[in-house]
Design a protein that fits this description.
The chain has one domain. By secondary structure, the chain is mostly helical. It is built from eight helices and no strands. α2 packs across α5. The longest helix has 25 residues. GO terms for molecular function: endopeptidase activity; metallopeptidase activity. InterPro entries: Rce1/LyrA-like_dom (IPR003675).
Length: about 200
């Protein structure tokens, strides 16, 4: 196998390319969401590197951990939104509209495709390659949030980082992709239902 085909090298090259694309398009109005969706469609190549971790938890434990992540994210957001106006539901929806999301159904369809690919890319290509669990959780969360640097405010980035920490920790615990996928999709759906 060539040096460029290894997970860390492939991740670094693709990650830098994605940042370059987002940087070049940063001043375009209402295209960020389309760019990020397209980027995660491109990450489907990470499936060729995916293999079930031998030390992963049972599926029932993984689903339960995903549901716990949903509860933690919803609780965090509900409390944080009380004190940080920049992450209120209305402000987040305004940010989404500015980035190119115009309808809730568009958000739901995009998330159904984007979230599993996002999780596959960051968990398979980055988090599983870092041997130290705490470093893996923090570094993966930073890398994930960094893609949204051009579209979100600092407060929104911080909130997203904390949510990504919860998701990365849940994956680190179960070693199954289903856990952060349930955590992320479930929390988005729960927050939409709670705040609309």
């Amino acid at each position: 196998m060539s040096k460029l085909a290894r997970k860390p090298s492939l991740f670094i090259l693709s990650f830098l390319l994605f940042h370059l694309l987002l940087f070049l398009m940063r001043h375009e109005n209402r295209v960020f969401w389309y760019m990020i969706t397209g980027i995660f469609l491109l990450t489907s190549f990470s499936y060729i590197r995916y293999s079930r971790h031998l030390a992963s938890r049972r599926i029932s434990q993984s689903i339960a951990a995903g549901l716990i992540a949903v509860i933690l994210i919803v609780l965090f957001y509900t409390v944080a939104a009380q004190y940080i106006p920049d992450i209120s539901y209305n402000k987040v929806m305004k940010t989404l509209i500015t980035s190119g999301v115009h309808y809730r159904w568009q958000l739901m369809i995009s998330l159904a495709v984007t979230i599993p690919l996002h999780e596959l890319y960051f968990r398979t290509m980055l988090q599983e390659t870092i041997p130290h669990p705490l470093v893996a959780v923090v570094l993966t969360s930073v890398a994930s949030v960094s893609l949204f640097y051009w579209a979100l405010s600092p407060a929104q980035l911080l909130a997203m980082f904390i949510m990504q920490l919860i998701l990365a920790a849940s994956f680190q615990f179960t070693r199954r992709l289903i856990t952060p996928i349930i955590g992320q999709i479930g929390s988005v759906i729960a927050l939409i239902l709670l705040f609309t």
